[in-house]
Design goal:
The complex is a heterodimer.
Chain A: E1 9-16, H1 20-26, E2 36-44, E3 48-56, H2 65-71, E4 75-81, E5 84-91, E6 96-98, E7 118-121, E8 128-130, E9 136-137
Antiparallel strand pairs in A: 1-3, 1-4, 2-3, 4-5, 6-7, 7-8, 8-9
Chain B: H1 16-31, E1 44-49, H2 55-66, E2 70-74, H3 88-96, E3 101-106, H4 111-117, E4 123-128, H5 134-148, E5 155-159, H6 166-175, E6 182-186, H7 195-204, E7 207-211, H8 214-217, E8 223-226, H9 237-243, E9 262-264, H10 285-304
Parallel strand pairs in B: 1-2, 1-3, 3-4, 5-6, 5-8, 6-7, 8-9
The chains are: A mainly beta, B alpha/beta.
């Protein structure tokens, strides 16, 4: 499959397969007004299969890097201008995330009290623990 | 070591040395309880019980009264502004205007954390849903310490509802810090410990075994901690009925147990320990209940920073 490169924009690469649309969702990318390409299950030497998100003509997107690291650990964000890569950043699992995901434990106090949803990283496999109830969130629960 | 002004939300909030200090003080109170009759004179404890409780509430209230202090509070939320929809944060802020420290029990997990973050006064978690119950852990540890002198190299078995049993979660977390402790978890598959408890044990390098067979592990146990299957934690009554009688400890089951085994239970008991075990010297659960009041007296004194004469500690 031929996938065109973009002249200018942002490329979020090395997203684990199946999480491309979640990245678009969690980053609140304006899909009504922006040209967005989500490439799913592309071949990858490192991951086997990966997703890629391309945003055309966008270079100043305010990306929530913690959200990206949480949803797509190991993802890279490259900013392209006139076919030139002007920056590339790498995003791993953040140690702590606030108000990105909600606790799924129905018994957690966050279900009744107006407090921020805070999670702490348990390990590098992407497990997170709710600050209040200790409930473990796995990557596939995001 | 300074516990004055601090809160107890989960068992690792205090260092092992601070725990020892509390146990030493509890031991002194047990020896001479009358010496402490005025320790908290003029102090006010607020008890916020959003869930039913007999032992914990009574032991806190008895502890404060025996220290010469006084109590305000509610034992069910229907009799407070909580029934009008007031948040935990607002309730505790209001209570702080009147009391010197507060005890909270709430069905939501993490509720005590929210309470403690909204006030300057000490807050004690008396049970937050199926999460933690650190003062029961103080009781459990004190009972073991009085009998065995310490906690290292013990094999501790937990039997019953390990999923919703907050006393189990807190006790295991407290044991993570002691050398050579081995944990045996006996429960039906549906009531195994939550994943975070398992993650704690793995990251602490603690040796643990999960099994459904109490008989095969009984001979190796130094402590057997039995818990009730809690009807109030189930969303589905059918599941409760199916699981409630999974393990009933009777004399036949402890026949091959060690002579020095300690059988503990946070109480209340339903039928998970047969009454015939009560007279066995290995049954410690009623001593445990009594120790609960003494260790809570020590805790209240430490958090308020008062001496037995009622003076503030320097």
């Amino acid at each position: 499959m031929q996938i065109d490169s973009i002249d200018s924009g942002i490329v979020i690469d090395h997203i684990r397969a199946g999480f491309g649309l979640k990245v678009v969702d969690y980053l609140n990318i304006d899909t009504d007004n922006q040209t967005v390409a989500v490439i799913m299950n592309a071949a990858s030497k490192k991951l086997g299969r990966k997703d890629i998100v391309k945003l055309e003509n966008v270079t100043d997107l305010d990306i929530d890097v913690k959200a990206l690291g949480l949803i797509a650990p190991g993802a890279t964000v490259s900013v392209i201008q006139n076919h030139q890569k002007i920056s590339k950043t790498h995003h791993d699992l953040p140690k702590r995330v606030k108000n990105i995901v909600k606790c799924k434990n129905p018994r957690c106090v966050t279900s009744i009290e107006a407090v921020p949803h805070i999670f702490h990283k348990v390990n590098d496999s992407g497990m997170y623990r709710c600050e209040y109830c200790d409930h473990i969130l796995r990557p596939n629960e995001l | 070591m300074e516990l004055k002004g601090r809160s107890l939300i989960e068992p690792l909030d205090f260092s092992p040395e601070e725990m020892d200090m509390l146990f030493d003080l509890a031991g002194q109170i047990i020896q001479n309880p009358d010496d402490y009759a005025d320790a908290c004179k003029g102090k006010l404890l607020a008890t916020l019980f959003y869930e039913p409780s007999t032992r914990t509430r009574f032991s806190f209230e008895a502890a404060m009264l025996r220290l010469g202090g006084q109590i305000i509070g509610f034992s069910e939320p229907g009799s407070s502004s909580v029934s009008k929809g007031e948040s935990i944060a607002d309730t505790i802020r209001t209570v702080e205007c009147y009391a010197d420290l507060a005890v909270i029990r709430h069905p939501k997990e993490g509720s005590a954390t929210v309470a403690a973050r909204n006030v300057e006064m000490p807050v004690i978690n008396a049970g937050d849903g199926g999460h933690h119950h650190p003062t029961q852990t103080l009781t459990d540890l004190l009972t073991i310490r009085l009998e065995k002198g310490g906690f290292e190299n013990l094999t501790v078995g937990f039997c019953g509802d390990l999923k919703f049993g907050r006393t189990v979660h807190s006790f295991i977390r407290a044991l993570l810090r002691y050398k050579g402790v081995k944990i045996i978890l006996v429960s039906p598959d549906e009531l195994r410990v939550p994943e975070y408890v398992r993650a704690d044990m793995v990251s602490a390098g603690m040796e643990f075994v999960e099994t459904t067979n109490i008989q095969e592990v009984m001979p190796g146990l130094d402590v057997l901690y039995v818990t009730r299957v809690q009807r109030e934690r189930f969303f589905n009554e059918e599941d409760y009925i199916r699981l409630k009688d999974s393990y009933i400890i009777d004399l036949a089951k402890i026949k091959n147990a060690k002579k020095e085994l300690m059988i503990l239970h946070p109480l209340p008991r339903v039928n998970e320990i047969s009454p015939e075990v009560d007279a066995d010297p290995r049954a410690f659960y009623f001593k445990q209940a009594k120790n609960g009041m003494f260790v809570r007296m020590a805790l209240i004194m430490a958090l308020l920073g008062v001496t037995k004469e009622g003076e503030s500690c320097k």
